[in-house]
Amino acid sequence: MNEATLADALHSVRITTDGVRASVTLDGHEVSSSLSGYTLEHRANQPPLLVLYARPPIDGVAFDGCAQVAVASEVPPADAIVAFLTSIEPARLQQAALNRDDLDGSPTELTSAMLRQLTEWAGGRA
To answer: Over the stretch 96-107, which tens digit does the pLDDT of each residue have?
Structure first.
C-alpha cells in the first residue's frame, strides 16, 4: 500500500516577502525558519506546486497542513547556483586559485584550483 505524502493533498499556503526575505506559512504554521528556500510553480489547469528546501536536519521540520507541497531532497536550486557564479569576479578567482598552497603541477592544476576555490566560497569559507 502506498503511503500518503504532502504532495497528495492541497494545503493552505501564504508567502509574504519584502523582496529579499520571505515568510512561508503552511496551514497557519510559520515554517520559514526551517527553510533555506522555496520554488513556486503554477501551470494552467493545475494547482500551484510549492517545493520547499528544508534546512538540515529535515526531521526538525513540521508540516501540518491550497497548493501541492513537496519537500526537495537537494539544495540549492539552479537559480542560486547561477546567481553565485555570476557574482564571481574572474580576476579575483584566478588570483585566489594561483595563491593556493595545494597546486599540484598537473596540466589542469589552475582549473582544479579554481573549482576548489569556488567550492570553498560556495560553502561560506573565505
So the answer is: 999 999 999 999
